[in-house]
C-alpha cells in the first residue's frame, strides 16, 4: 500500500474509472479529512482501472507543489480547499502544506527545495523575494505586494462591495458605514471601502467610516481601542448597516454593539466578508457575510499553476466574483421608517420569484402604483419594479452557484417568463452570461 501522507506532504492520486472507491470524489473526501486534521483516519490507496482490467494501485510522477497559505483563518483554509479539489480532480500532486499564519516568514526549507511549483499568499516583500528566488512557477493568491511580476488570482473587491450594498439596499437602509481596524494602507481595503462610498453617494445614502488609529500590532484590542469603537457606534444614525472588512472584525463590531447596548439588527445591522463559518456561527447573533468564493480562487490558482508548470502562459491578473451574501440574523431586517415601504419590501422579498409585478404589490397595500413607487423611492432609492428584479436576480445567482438546475428551471423558479428572457437580462445587468457565471462559481 502506498501512503498518501509523507511527512508534511499531502499526496493526491490520479484517479480514473468508475469504481466507487477510486473516484475523484473519494480522493477529495480523503484529502479533506487530512486537511481537517483527523489522525484516526489511516492512509489509504485508491484503485485505478487501466484498460478495463482490475483496479491496480499506482502513483504516477506527482507534481510537487508547496502551498504557502495560512491555515489559521477561514479565507486561507477555503483557498487550500480549492487547491485540494483541483489536485483530486487533475492530479497527481504532492502538496507540501504546514500550519501557517498570514504574517509568517518564508519557511526555511524553501531554499533549495526540490519542487515544481508554489501557490502563495504573498503578504510581504520578503516572501515575494523568497518564492521568486526558487526559480519555480509561482501563483499569488493575496496581491498585497505590488509589482512582483507574480501572476495573481484574487477576489473582485468591487463586486464584494456591490453585493454588500445591494444586500443593505434590499432591506431599506438609508445609513451605511464601513469599519476596519487595520490602521495602515491595504489595497483591498481601500478598494472595498471606496466602492461602497461611491455606491452610497450615487444612491444618496449617508456613509460613515470608523476613524481607526494606526495599529502597530495585530491581535487583541486594548480598552482604549474598544472605547473608540463603542463611541463611534453610539454616534451613528439609526438604523445603520455596517460592512466590516472581514468576519473577524465584524465579530468585534457585534460584541461592541451589544455592550452599549444596541439592538442587532434593529439599531445596527452588521455584515462581514469571507463567510468564515467559525466566526459567523460564534457571533451573537450569527453573522451575515459575503461569501467571496475563496474556494474558487484556490481552484483557479491551481489550474493556472498547472499551466505554468507545463510551460504555458497565464494572465497577469485574474479576479473572481463573490458567490453572494449568506444571510444570518445579524442583518435579517427591513430597516425603513415608512410602514408602507416596510410592508412592500417584505412582500417583495417573500413573493418576488412568483409572477408578480409592481401593480400586484400596490394592490396588496391598497395604494396606487404611483404612490408605491414614490414611497419606495424615498425609502430605498428604487422603484418597485427595480426592487423585484433585484430579488429575482439574487435568486438566479444563488441557483447558478449552488445547483445543477438547467436555465429553464432557474428562470421559472425566479419568476422569469422564459430562459431566453433571463439570459438576455442577466447579460445586460450582470455583464456576463448565466453559463459563464456558473462556471466561475463552480471553478
UniProtKB/TrEMBL annotation:
Q: Which InterPro entries match?
A: Homeodomain-like_sf, HTH_AraC, HTH_AraC-typ_CS, LacI/GalR-like_sensor, Peripla_BP_I, XylR_PBP1
Q: Which Gene3D superfamilies match?
A: 3.40.50.2300, Homeodomain-like
A single MF term (Gene Ontology) = transcription cis-regulatory region binding
Identify the domain of life: Bacteria
* Keyword line: DNA-binding, Transcription, Transcription regulation
Designated gene of the protein:
xylR_8
Domain called HTH araC/xylS-type: residue spans: 342-440
The name this protein carries in UniProt is: Xylose operon regulatory protein
Amino acid at each position: 500500500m502506498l501512503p498518501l501522507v509523507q511527512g508534511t506532504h499531502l499526496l493526491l492520486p490520479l484517479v480514473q474509472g468508475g469504481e466507487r472507491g477510486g473516484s475523484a470524489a473519494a480522493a477529495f473526501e480523503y484529502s479533506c479529512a487530512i486537511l481537517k486534521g483527523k489522525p484516526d483516519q489511516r492512509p489509504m490507496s485508491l484503485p485505478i482501472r487501466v484498460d478495463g482490467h482490475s483496479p491496480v494501485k499506482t502513483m504516477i510522477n506527482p507534481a510537487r507543489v508547496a502551498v504557502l497559505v495560512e491555515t489559521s483563518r477561514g479565507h486561507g483554509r477555503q483557498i487550500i480547499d480549492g487547491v485540494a479539489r483541483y489536485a483530486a480532480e487533475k492530479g497527481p500532486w504532492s502538496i507540501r502544506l504546514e500550519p501557517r499564519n498570514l504574517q509568517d516568514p518564508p519557511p526555511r526549507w524553501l531554499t533549495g527545495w526540490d519542487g515544481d511549483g508554489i501557490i502563495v499568499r504573498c503578504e510581504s516583500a520578503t516572501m515575494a523575494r523568497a518564492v521568486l528566488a526558487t526559480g519555480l512557477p509561482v501563483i499569488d493568491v493575496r496581491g498585497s505586494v505590488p509589482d512582483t511580476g507574480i501572476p495573481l488570482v484574487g477576489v473582485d473587491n468591487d463586486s464584494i462591495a456591490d453585493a454588500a450594498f445591494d444586500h443593505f439596499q434590499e432591506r431599506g437602509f438609508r445609513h451605511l458605514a464601513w469599519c476596519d481596524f487595520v490602521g495602515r494602507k491595504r489595497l483591498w481595503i481601500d478598494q472595498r471601502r471606496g466602492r461602497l462610498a461611491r455606491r452610497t453617494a450615487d444612491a444618496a445614502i449617508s456613509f460613515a467610516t470608523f476613524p481607526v488609529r494606526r495599529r502597530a500590532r495585530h491581535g487583541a484590542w486594548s480598552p482604549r481601542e474598544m472605547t473608540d469603537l463603542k463611541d463611534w457606534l453610539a454616534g451613528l444614525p439609526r438604523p445603520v448597516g455596517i460592512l466590516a472588512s472581514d468576519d473577524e472584525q465584524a465579530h468585534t463590531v457585534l460584541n461592541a454593539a451589544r455592550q452599549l447596548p444596541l439592538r442587532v439588527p434593529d439599531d445596527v445591522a452588521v455584515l462581514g466578508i469571507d463567510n468564515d463559518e467559525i466566526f459567523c456561527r460564534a457571533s451573537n447573533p450569527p453573522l451575515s457575510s459575503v461569501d467571496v468564493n475563496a474556494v474558487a480562487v484556490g481552484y483557479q490558482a491551481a489550474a493556472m499553476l498547472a499551466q505554468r508548470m507545463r510551460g504555458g502562459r497565464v494572465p497577469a491578473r485574474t479576479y473572481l466574483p463573490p458567490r453572494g451574501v449568506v444571510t444570518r440574523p445579524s442583518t435579517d431586517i427591513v430597516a425603513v421608517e415608512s410602514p408602507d415601504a416596510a410592508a412592500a419590501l417584505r412582500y417583495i422579498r417573500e413573493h418576488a420569484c412568483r409572477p408578480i409585478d409592481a401593480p400586484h404589490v400596490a394592490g396588496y397595500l391598497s395604494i396606487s402604483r404611483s404612490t408605491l413607487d414614490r414611497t419606495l423611492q424615498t425609502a430605498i432609492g428604487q422603484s418597485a419594479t427595480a426592487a423585484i428584479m433585484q430579488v429575482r436576480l439574487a435568486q438566479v445567482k444563488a441557483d447558478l452557484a449552488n445547483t445543477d438546475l438547467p436555465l429553464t428551471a432557474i428562470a421559472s423558479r425566479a419568476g422569469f417568463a422564459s430562459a431566453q428572457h433571463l439570459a438576455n437580462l442577466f447579460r445586460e445587468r450582470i455583464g456576463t452570461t448565466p453559463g459563464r457565471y456558473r462556471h466561475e462559481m463552480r471553478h
